[in-house]
Amino acid sequence: MFRKKGQSTLEYVLILTAIIGAIIVAATTFVKPRVEESLNHVTQEMKDQVEKIQFGGAQAGGAAADGAAAGGV
Asked: Which one of 13, 14, 29, 66 is most buried, by most CB atoms within 10 A?
């Protein structure tokens, strides 16, 4: 009697493990490329903004003058 109950429990655990494994595989297949694409986009935007900054006063007033010329943004 206990043996059959233990066997049923083991079968449920194996099925649940298979389902969780399938979910993990699906997540890495479909979600990972989108996350990587988003991170690459954010990284590129940050690089673009850093390149716009002028350090060391290349013009009179440096970056502060650029901010004032751009409307204070």
From this structure: 66
Token pair for residue 62? Answer: 């440096």
Residue with tokens 């409307």: 71
Q: How confident is the model at residue 66 (pLDDT cuts 50, 70, 90)?
A: low
Q: Is 54 left (phi over 0), alpha (psi -120 to 50) or beta?
A: beta
Q: Is 71 left (phi over 0), alpha (psi -120 to 50) or beta?
A: left
53: region left, alpha or beta (phi > 0 left; psi from -120 to 50 alpha) = beta
What residues does each domain of the chain span? 2-69
